[in-house]
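Note to self: keep these together.
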Amino acid sequence: MNRPLKLSALSLVMLLSLGLSAQTKYTKYYEFGASLGTLNMSNGIANSNRVNAFFAEAAPNLSVFAKYHFNDWFGIGFDVSYANLKAADINHENANRGLSVTTSMAHANAFTEIHFIRFGKYHLEDKYTVFVKAGLGFAGWNPELTFDDLVPSTLDIETNAYNGMTSFYGIGAKYRLGYHSILTFEFRYTNINGNTTDGFIDMAPEATNPNDKVWGFNFGYSYAIL
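Structure:
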């Protein structure tokens, strides 16, 4: 490539970079809010998907969040949440075992959020969007296990304070009440790097003890700073 072509290519790259930078500056905005929803566990006690178990064990989950949107399509964010979770054998596959557990859980996440419909600073006409999100986080929990009868000999009781890294994915929708006000509905499924949210580890030879999960629905309100 001769010198004039090199200079032209470099100039084009610089112009495109400046254009993208200007567009990002033009379309960026911030979003701050809070949400209230449900949270359920999936672990050695909560081991079924029964509808009655969902309603019996759904715990209130409160969270606050902040987001930075680079443009109409893409943003990053951070949230913290807290819930008091519960599960009981009587609601699941081992109804005769008689175990139940309660645990408080605090959670912090960093995430990305991608919109499928343009939704941003200069698009008041677009009242809603659908989005997906994913992130990494950190959780802490402290299970309290209770039992109606003798604890099975294969169970190693783990009722202390624990923590672990987490990863999650979610899907949801947003609706704009006004230029600044936004309502959000979201489903989130979180994998926890640990298996003690139920308060025990099964030491039976055939036991697999996979990582525990938590999942739930959230309704949120946020205020956009444009």
